[in-house]
Amino acid sequence: MKKTILTSILVLFGLILFGQSNTKNGFSNYLEFKNNEPTLSFEFELVQRTTKDVFMTGGIENFKLKKITPSTEKETVEKNIWGLKVGNSVYINSYPIIKKKGYNLIIEKGYYTYFIGEPAWYEKEQRELGIIKPNEKQIAVCCQVGYVILPDGTIKFLKPELLVELCSDNQEIANEIKNANLKIEDVPKMFDFLKKYNLTKK
Predict the structure, then answer these.
(1) Which of left, alpha, beta for 67 (phi over 0: left; psi -120 to 50: alpha)?
(2) What is the maximum alpha-carbon separation in the chain?
(3) First vs last Cα of the chain: how many Å apart?
(4) Tally: H helices and E strands in the chain
(5) SS3 for 116?
(6) ∠ CA(166), CA(168), CA(174), 5° rounding?
(7) In whole angstroms, what separates CA 27 from the centre of its chain?
(8) Which residue, 22, 35, 45, 114, has most beta carbons within 10 Å?
(9) Is 103 within 8 Å of 68 (Cβ atoms)?
């Protein structure tokens, strides 16, 4: 009898582990994230960086992954996939955006989705994100910055002039933004405007 119970417990435990490893928690692209339909399965430990483990002095304490299973998928999870779902939260992969390993918490998902991340250090990424114009040279950007994900999945560096452009079809909000005299470092305030704008799209 005891042997039967023990066997049943071991089988059940094995099924729980198997179920966990087959939970869909990885987004291979933006469309999967948008539809909340992850198609990939990974096991990992999500760890927030400490002040001793950030990219630069004053940098953001984003997240990194440890104990990735299967180990053969380590590079895929660190460099290639769009993001990971942990509970009700989603963490976007930094590497495809700025070529630095790490994950950032999506603060709000909506018409415009946004998050705080690290600055892009390389010219190609700075150009793609809109940090510099096509005819400008690479610049130094410090430290944590705001990013916005457009409805088509394009990711852009959030700055006041872009914020006005994104909300230009709502004259009231656009005027509020202009009158706020925002600076690039006013990330929380810019997010507040995006949140307000998102409500008008529901």
Answers:
(1) left
(2) 78
(3) 59
(4) 8, 9
(5) strand
(6) 100
(7) 11
(8) 114
(9) no
Percentages (nearest 5) of helix, strand, coil residues in the chain: 40, 20, 40
- pLDDT range class, residue 3, cuts 50, 70, 90: very low
**At residue 21, does pLDDT exceed 80?**
no
Residue with tokens 């230009």: 168
- Its pTM stands at 0.83
CA distances from 133 to 100, 138, 144, 150, 161 (A): 22, 9, 20, 19, 13
The residues near 149 (Cβ < 8 Å, ≥ 6 apart) are: 30, 112, 113, 114, 115, 155
Whether 44 and 84 have beta carbons less than 8 Å apart is answered as yes
Contact of 38 with 82, CB cutoff 8 Å: no
Residues 6+ apart with CB under 8 A from 70: 42
3-state secondary structure of 26: strand
Verify cis geometry, omega within 30 degrees of 0, for the bond prior to 70. yes
**How far is the C-alpha of 115 from the C-alpha of 191, rounded, in Å?**
9
Closest CA to 126 of 99, 105, 163: 99
Residue linked to tokens 């001793």: 52
